[in-house]
């Protein structure tokens, strides 16, 4: 399967996943809000029903002493009809049922209403004391409670309190519609959000995939060249087994030098592979910068002298930093090796340290061939070499500065390159103080 196809498939997978997640979140959110509003709306009506029921029940015991449940002056015409509590709730309708399951306060609720809605209505004995919903004539919504309320002296067996919930139902229906519309809009919007997110998510993956592929290609290429040379030279040696080593000295020396290059290359590749997998851990400890640099530079003074180059040190930092000695050593070796590699006879190489704000600055400067301005931004890239032929001659593979940059970053520092004032290059490393 092509690379692009794999990426597209992964992007689609992520897009579908985020779209489903968004949809589930919006749906759950909508359901929670809807049920919360519903319960709040009906809590109010239920409280009204229960408080009215309490009032009805309160009236009864007192009235056992007298018949004022049946108000003589303005009470119902039927002597069996019971009067409700004072201050009745205008939203609540009260039905009195007798033992035969008939409504006996028809006059109180109004003959028209009774005949239109309650004539064929039956007492619900199954839901006694439970608040229940009902719809009359498929039009009007009520919540009601039925409770037993038998008192001597009247026919009433059950009382049913009904409260009209049409306003609540209308609010709820409108709110439900609103939630569905909003959720649908959000779900539609989430398609584009998922697309944008999936594209963004794939970007770094594609970038690192390409980088990795490039790295593997470059690495194999770098490994193949010395291997081919070694193979050729060894095959050549095999063709003349009787030959003395002295006569084949050049071939052997070249194979050896390519073997060394291979060994350095594999160890550099390993360092970078470990850096990528974040496997490499620093072992930091206090390091006196000036003393450490002096120690690392000492052998280079002799090497430089043998090449008729001059090394100078100006160490003025005089402080300690927290660093991994092994990695710091590797960093200085990379920069000093390069300085030696890219300088000629009579050139000079200098190492300078000083303090700046909260940082220690290490400058490694040379008067060598320098780096052209337009290439300076590439020199920390893996396998980048300004002059491939020359770099190969000096044994370079273009990995040194990538490793140097990784070491500095691991120490929370920075590394940069600039032109040396007159001629050559200056590398500036800034590391945080302790
Ligand atoms: P190499 O192993 O090829 O030296 P590096 O990553 O260390 O790889 O360096 C990358 C490139 O940067 C080199 O090939 C060279 O062109 C350039 N470079 C590094 N250091 C110097 C320097 N001191 N002077 C001039 N060019 C340099």
Automatic annotation (TrEMBL):
Pfam families given in the database record: HATPase_c, HisKA
One example GO MF annotation: kinase activity
Catalytic reactions of this protein: ATP + protein L-histidine = ADP + protein N-phospho-L-histidine
Top-level taxon of origin: Bacteria
Region annotation (Disordered) ranges: 61-90
Compositional bias per record (Basic and acidic residues), positions renumbered to this chain: 62-72
Protein EC: 2.7.13.3
Regions crossing the membrane: 12-34, 178-197
Record-linked Gene3D superfamilies: 1.10.287.130, Histidine kinase-like ATPase, C-terminal domain
Localization in the cell: Membrane
Histidine kinase domain location: 218-434
Enzyme class, spelled out: transferase
Keywords of this entry: ATP-binding, Kinase, Membrane, Nucleotide-binding, Phosphoprotein, Transferase, Transmembrane, Transmembrane helix, Two-component regulatory system
Name of the molecule in the record: histidine kinase
Source organism (scientific name): Metabacillus endolithicus
